[in-house]
Fold this protein.
Amino acid sequence: MTEKLETDLRIARPDDFYEALIETHRGLSDEESRQLNARLILILANQVGDMDILTDALRLARGDAEPDS
Amino acid sequence: MAEVSVQQSYTYPKYPFRRPKALDDGAVERLPLVIVGGGVVGLSAALEFAGLGVETVVLDDDDTVSRGSRSICVSKRTLEIFDRSGVADRMVDKGVVWQRGRVYRGEREIYNFDLLPEEGHKMPAFINLQQYYVEEYLIDRITELGKTELRWRNAVTGIEILDAGGALLTVETPEGEYRIQADHVIAADGVRGAIRRAMGLAFTGRTFEERFLITDIRMTADFPMERRFWFEPSFHGGQSALLHRQPDSIFRVDLQLGPDADPVEEAKPERVIPRIRRMIGGELDFTLEWISVYTFTCRRIERFRHGPVFFVGDAAHVVSPFGARGGNGGIQDIDNLVWKLALVLKGEASDALLDSYDAERVPAADENILNSSRSTDFMTPKNQVSADFRQAVLSLSEQVPFARALVNSGRLSLPHHYAATPLTTLDRDHFEGRGPAPGSPAPDAPVAIDGESGWLLKQLGRRFVALCFAGGAGDGAGVATLTKELGRLHPFVESFVVVPDEAVNDKDGLVDTTGLAFERWGAAAGTVYLVRPDQHVAARWKSPPTIDEMRSALARSIGARTGSEGMAA
């Protein structure tokens, strides 16, 4: 069975998660926040593990990059 | 806050001031119960008391209904509460019924949601109806019931809690001042309420700096009956915008202005008109009805009961408007408080029951504050990283479903589920997550009564009801015997049998014509629910409870401290 990138909601309490995510950044400088996000991506990527899924996730994130940002 | 009223579509009723007797005899008036504030929450309290046969006096500092449309979204739960008093149908008839919300990014729809995607409920997910209509209809119904004395232009200016019990109110009228000594006071006098201030009770919580423009416009447009919310629309410089339809061809527009907007300048029609013009385009004619520029807070006082005084609605807690949790939350306070006070006034429950108002409604207020704060945070990112994440969520939401769940344009008001409060009896049996758990609001379903189609929820409320689900033919009789026995427990318990179809011949039964009653209640043959007067579940069993189990659940749900004691009478 090949795993694939899940795009349906899997987070049990999405509003709780989002608040916790924003709260984690409280009081950090923009640079510190960037560093936190980079660490967070690596931690979650390791949790995902599967290279095919990670590749799909990278594509999804890249494909939506804002042209003007 | 700055407000400009330029209204033309609604004629405000003017209710007469009548000179209170106490002004002439100079005596302190004695009353068992006084409701301070004749807004939507205070009036709901008077109406619910009237339905329970309890006479009340309402003191209001004005002589008309809400000035401005204000709280326009009336939730399903609020309508269900009003339906107990026979006033909901009039509201639904007049109101704009809606259940779908659409969320846009720029001018593109990113997703839409349905707040009630199933049939078989008497009341719709929401109606939009101006607060002045809601209050007018409540006043009409209260007047018909004849249990309430509405005292207009009676402003409470002071309160003293008496050591001997009760409270002494100072009331100012156009013809002088008088005093009332009341055994119980319901403070429904709003966010700037005199009672809260006189008692020195502070609101604590968050204040948001963002300013918003709320305006009602009148125009003929065949916009759908939906809630439409825009993130970053080009017509409003990238800030958020909300459009809602009301009766009388009136539309509510809510525009984010940023923290630096000047409230007085922004409330001027010459500033507002171009903003609306950019939003609705050049073709439609419109007139302004009402303008308000405001900031908001998400706060509450620490406790909602202070001896003889009960704080309800905005007098107890305030939220931002995103989610329609202000007015609807206040009416749920009333739903929770009134039956308890009525039982205590009639001597059928002890004062301890009233403490449960605090235990149940403080967590409910916190739930509303939490949801309202989160929506506001999402709409007004406070720093770069919040703005980045919001941008990421919005852009992903066009492609992948999970991100839509993170978009927060308001989490709309739902009834609170009272968790393990002192009044609820924990489950003896496993319901596998099905049916309303103890503390949850009762779900509606279509039923047939004596061959007539009706609604399950209409059979509940105002007193305790034992709802017993019977299985196949012949099963009804046994359950009916049990429920009659249960009904003899106490005069305020009534019982109903729900039967799966006409084949089960129980003339007192409610026939579950669609199967939705059994399904929504997670019921099988023998399932019994005890439902409180506010239509929340007190206790439930998969097989019929013993009389002792029922007695103890009932005692607990009226605040008696131990098992069967308290029900012995």
Q: What stands out?
A: Helices of chain A lie at 14-24, 30-48, 51-63. The two ends of chain A are 38 Å apart (CA to CA). The interface with chain B takes residues 6-11, 14-15, 17-19, 21-22, 25, 28, 30, 33, 37, 60, 63-64, 66, 69 of chain A (CB under 8 Å). The longest helix of chain A spans residues 30-48.
